[in-house]
Design brief:
The chain is mainly α. 69% of the residues lie in helices and 1% in strands. It has a two-stranded antiparallel ribbon.
Length: 428
């Protein structure tokens, strides 16, 4: 009898606790996002640095490592100054976040955003701002001035990456339309792939491209970096749930499934075409699977992820042959055919496999029909590609006027390690 009298009080307390939880620190979520932040930074340093470093020739390995480190530092400082505000500021409009949160003036130790410290959210998003311009260097590796890389990356971060981030994740016009991009199909992969393609065209091919073999100098390094990318991608995708919950768990599961499917598909295609599967093909298929599942990771189920991974291996394999073989574009490390095409494919696939009406292949559900959602997804893809291509072209021309994009033929022949950094990757 006594307990019955206290039940209304218990109910009120539960309601109060529930309503306050969104503004209180959630230790579990905070711990997971702290971990995810470290994992995503680990993807760039050392993951991407080693992955790209092993793919270039011996005389240019240090230049790639330096570019990754330099971009990480430049992007971090710019994110602090104005990048975060442009992307996630509250004083802007549908196209940018404004400058009201510049210098992180509104962020304190006690600031909370969705149950985690705002500082943790800022840092988590900073790691995305670091890796995206770093991906682009694969499009113009082995022939670009270090100063040009840093200046271009800084301008590109502020003029392309941060505004597109606001469009999709910061409450901008694509978010209002309902675009599904859980972890960066448009924001990261399409922007980086498109920029790399434009840069490869503007800067031009490496001397000897198409006539002189340019094999990777250290596949052991590349595969080591690829393994780091695979592990780090769990923070990239599952961390984008911004909580330690079922969305994060499913995102991690489907990320792994797609990576495995992409690896196997690419290897089988290569085995059939060339008679032998290569280690380089396996890790490239892995990245294709990871990049393609990224936008869909929080919306699809395991079987949908399997189809996405298989499609990634198939489509990106032939896209790579098309860009280098048919178009003769020296996208040195296949950024557009793997990341760009993968981002496009994954963004469109999210509009299909997120549906709860596909039986075994169903995802988390859509608020509209598949056809209507596909219209939104296509709009996001086209707008992101068009804006990125135009802005990237203008920025490249500007940087060329300021410092010059390309090294001299003599410096390119000798190698960027010695000519730009006065060092050598190997002294054996």
């Amino acid at each position: 009898m006594m307990l019955r009298h206290y039940l209304p009080l218990f109910s009120v307390l539960l309601l109060v606790c529930g309503s306050a939880s969104a503004d209180e620190l959630n230790a579990a979520n905070t711990s997971w996002i702290l971990t995810s932040t470290a994992l995503v930074l680990f993807m760039t340093l050392p993951g991407l640095a080693l992955f790209y470093g092993g793919l270039v020739r011996t005389k240019n390995v240090l230049s790639i490592l330096m570019q990754c480190f330099g971009i990480a530092c430049v992007a971090s400082i710019l994110w602090l100054l104005v990048g975060y505000s442009i992307a996630f500021g509250s004083g802007g409009n549908a196209f940018w976040g404004g400058l009201g949160d510049s210098f992180l003036a509104t962020v304190s130790e006690d600031s909370i955003s969705s149950g985690i410290p705002t500082s943790v959210f800022v840092m988590f998003q900073m790691t995305f701002a670091v890796i995206t311009p770093a991906l682009i260097i694969g499009g113009f590796a082995e022939r670009t001035r270090f100063s040009a890389v840093l200046i271009f990356s800084a301008l590109w971060l502020l003029i392309v990456y941060a505004p597109v981030t606001h469009w999709v994740w910061g409450g901008g016009w694509l978010a209002e339309k309902g675009l599904l991009d859980f972890a960066g199909g448009t924001v990261v992969h399409i922007t980086a792939g498109t920029a790399a393609l434009v840069a490869a065209i503007v800067i031009g091919p490496r001397k000897g491209f198409g006539t002189t073999p340019m094999p990777p100098h250290n596949l052991t390094m590349t595969i080591t970096g690829a393994g780091m990318l695979w592990v780090g991608w769990f923070g990239f995708n599952a961390g984008s749930a911004l909580a330690a919950n079922g969305d994060a768990g499913m995102a991690m599961l489907v990320t792994h499934i797609s990576a495995a499917a992409g690896t196997l598909t690419w290897s089988l295609l290569e085995w059939k075409k060339y008679g032998k599967p290569s280690a380089l093909g396996a890790v490239t298929g892995m990245v294709a699977g990871l990049g393609t599942i990224t936008p869909a990771s929080g919306y699809v189920g395991p079987m949908g992820a399997l189809i996405i991974g298989l499609s990634a291996g198939l489509v990106c394999f032939y896209a790579t042959l098309f860009v280098k073989g048919k178009l003769k574009i020296d996208d040195s490390l296949d950024v557009m055919p793997v990341h760009g095409v993968g981002g496009i494919l994954g963004t469109l696939a999210a509009g299909i496999f997120a549906s709860s009406e596909l039986g075994l292949f169903s995802g988390q559900g859509l608020d509209r029909s598949i056809s209507a959602q596909m219209g939104v997804q296509a709009t996001g893809v086209i707008a992101t590609m068009a804006y990125t291509a135009v802005a990237t072209y203008i920025l490249l021309k500007l940087v060329d006027l300021i410092v010059g994009l390309r090294v001299s033929e003599e410096d390119e022949a000798e190698g960027l390690d010695v000519t730009l950094h006065n060092e050598s990757g190997y002294d054996l």
